[in-house]
User: Fold this.
Amino acid sequence: MMSDTTNVMLVGVGGQGTILASRVLAQLLLDAGFDVKMSEVHGMAQRGGSVTTHVRFGVRVAAPTISPGQAHFILAFECMEAARYAHYLTKDGVIIANTRRIPSLPILIGREAYPDDIASRLTALGVNVHWLDASTVAADLGNVRVENTVLLGAFSTFLAFPEDAWAQALRTVIPAKHIELNLAAFAAGRRLTHQ
Amino acid sequence: MKTLMSGNEAIARGAWEAGVRFASAYPGTPSTEILENMARYREVRSQWSVNEKTALEAALGASLGGVRALCAMKHVGLNVAADPLFSSSYTGVNSGLVIVTADDPGCHSSQNEQDNRYYARAAKLPLIEPSDSQEALDFTRIAFELSEEYDTPVLLRVTTRIAHGKSPVATGERTDAKAPAYERTMAKYVLVPAVARPRHAAVEERLARLQAYAESSPINRIEWGSRRLGIISGGAAYQYAREVLGDNASYLKLGMGYPFPDALVRSFISQVEQVVVVEELEPFLEQAVRALGMGAEHRIEGKSLIPCTGELDSRTVALSLAPVSAAAKCGPADLSAPGRQAEQVVGRPPMFCAGCPHRGVFYELGKLPVMVSGDIGCYALGAMPPFSAMDTCIDMGASITAGLGFQTALDILRPDRPARTIAVIGDSTFFHSGMTGLLDAAYNDVGVITIILDNRITAMTGHQENPGSGFTLSGAPAREAQLAAVVRAIGIEMVQTIDPFDLSQVREAVAAAMDSPGPSVIIARGPCALLRRLAVKRPVYRVDQDTCRRCKACLRVACPALYVEGESVQIDAETCVGCGVCSQVCRFGSIKQAGAAEDGDE
Assistant:
């Protein structure tokens, strides 16, 4: 059986850089010698819709996607998205979640309110969530757009890969002109969860 | 050293390695990246065609002319290209021709879930189906060999998960294909009836030879595991079955689903206790299996267990196989446990971007008592609240022609109470298949009003150039088709070009068109907000909280930059691009350009 496979979901809002973060993760795993499958759905992703990427790695990975109940980790780039995909977690799965709140269309047009109880609902479900404010950390570094790399840095402490390997993957995927900022963002993210 | 590639990248790489010299496509999710990747290889002449029919005809012509050619499209694109597809089966090829169809189970970005494997059977062409990126590369190379050896176009079918899914790939080197000399061969290429009749016989003879190939080709393989259960599968479905059953089953993995390897399948079925055909969408393989007539002596399941709607995933396949295999598992999840329920949170549908040129048009259309005939593109979002300004969205180009029909029905049923139909269509979609429909409207003098949303790019699929954008696929400057001149040449006399960011222009143009009984065209010309080369830096807007009446009318433009904070509406300066549509719907003049008062400071 494929029980040696680890499943990671990255969820967020179009424009938040979830796909780029997924590519860094997949590159790291490929460099480390794993079989990797990464699945993303394009289409209307740039138009503010919900975006998910599935990354699976192990000795041999068959299915391209993660089913509900299978994700060992969810990296949530936005608060409400953390709840939307929580049922994908395994029983003991972990969510690393950004506290950033991005209102969706029904909220923007005043038909719904942004839920205030996401954290308490996830706690009530018994989900292991690590909340962090990656957007502020990124903004402090000079560009909120690197919140994706801050989150990746925070997530990196949950996997047993050396920081060098992550840096190498970042250098492979991120264009040279943005690499220094991203390396700083990664390091800052790593400090958020490094005990 | 392996690299991580999407299936689409791997198909392009495989085609390049196979010595392809010409590639054509019309963009369409999930196929678009095939040509975008082809365009990186300078040995290949790659082009966006205006639609899938012209793309396939060009690729066939290139093949006849002596160069290997690839043509790619999404599943519904093959409907548009069906005419040359069927003819190309009869003409055969000169140099290799591979046609890629990218199907979209689950309708991630499509209007239907059609299963294009049936096209292979209907057009009598070999069908190749990879299950990951490595196979996408390898099978593309094989497809070109097959095409030339058997004198046939080859249909390479992928689905969204194969096209967009990334997995490790070992690449090879490019082999220059030989360029066979073209010889005028009326008996093959001129499909008049006297030629077509014997060509049909040649196609049947070719199929028999291809079937013999399918019986022994390594592209169809058996992976032996437990013989208590035999799985017959292909494409992404094979991966889900493999994930769920591992070595608790044996697999007949069909990389070539048509022609069907009857003897191989018979042999496999006779060596396992029971068989399940696991495939996404239609029972394409299952029907071929059942036609072998082994059902009386062998237990064979298929769509009796596996759903024929929607995209498969591991859990769906595991639950479907549970009745026939206790070993069916889905990763760490216990199938018998329901698991966590999905949390109910506010939806996050896609929406028009800040600064989108479509916003103002649909804001105005939503106020009018008209039928709005929609089309395929980002602007289908105009059907969604708060605009709710679209009646139909059918297929590429249908806005004008279905609008023509609807207008005719109105004219027949309500001659005393004039009512109007307004077709909305993007620039790329207009070039694709709107022009012919507009010609129908002009020729038959039907008073459908057409709004061409000319955002200067093919936006929804991720900014591909088109005949009106001024650039080719490779980024070279191109002749720019002039929409207004095209429309006039078709015979439309009333042509208005407007700025869609100016709502009064939208209102006045539509009113003028409705006052005119005949067919007319409004060209709403404003660049896609995401198109950097045409981006205009404009001051952002802000809400003057002193004069704002809190009526929230501005929220009806559904802009991502506007949000409610307590009772007040705010504009996020980071998101706003200064298009000004919101300020025009404010009756109290409370939405102003930020910094307008400070201009003197600079």
